[in-house]
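User: I'm writing a tutorial on reading structure tokens. Could you give me a worked example: one chain, its sequence, then its tokens, then a sentence or two explaining what the tokens reveal?
Assistant: Sure. Here is the example chain.
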Amino acid sequence: MKIRAGIAAAAVLASAVLVLAGCATSPATPAPSPVPTDAPQTTEPQPDDIDAAWLDNGRMIAVITWGSSSVDCTPQAADVTADGQNVTVTMAEFDETLACTADFTARATPVALPAGVDPMKEITVTVAIGDQKLDTDLDGAKGVTGVPGEPTDYLPSAGWFDDNGLVLLTWGSSTCRPVVQDFAETADALTVTFAASEAPCTFDMVPRATVLQATNDDITTLTLVGDNLDGTVTILGD
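And here are its predicted structure tokens:
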């Protein structure tokens, strides 16, 4: 089931802390005039659209939001709780001193699920953004063995969202995030090649989410090449 709702949450694991900065929202606009029934309807993503994907063998999800591609402008969560299969994410206030690019693209925020959530069953996610609350559902993940609340194994993982988007989760330095050099798609294979990183990197270990766009969401594996990420991961969902 595809998700349309609110923002996302950060993961805090062992000695690694991921801090993501929020992105500015546009000022409220007046309600539009009624649209004639024969008028063309837009299918373009809107600023308040979100999707979600399973990650980390069911221990995490990625929440996909639309907005500035600046890393520091990816939404940030202040708190994540769960009551059974109902997960609540409370967003931190946006830091208006941040400068965000004016583009409009899909961004993904990894969210560690609280203990007690069953990733094999559907979950409902409520995102609190100021006085606004948005709800969304996510179908259970098939074949996962990870347990929310338990430590990650720090292995790459990936999950489908929407009809042609997928999120790749890798682990490493917060200052040396993977840079996609090439993304190749055939009828039955997806391969992402990363540019080699030569910059000095911090020694932290954080989850890093990369959004990719494909046309065939029936493909179940993603091959990684380069930047010490070589391997193959199963794509969860769909």
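What the tokens reveal: Residues 1-42 have pLDDT under 50 and may be disordered. The radius of gyration is 18 Å.
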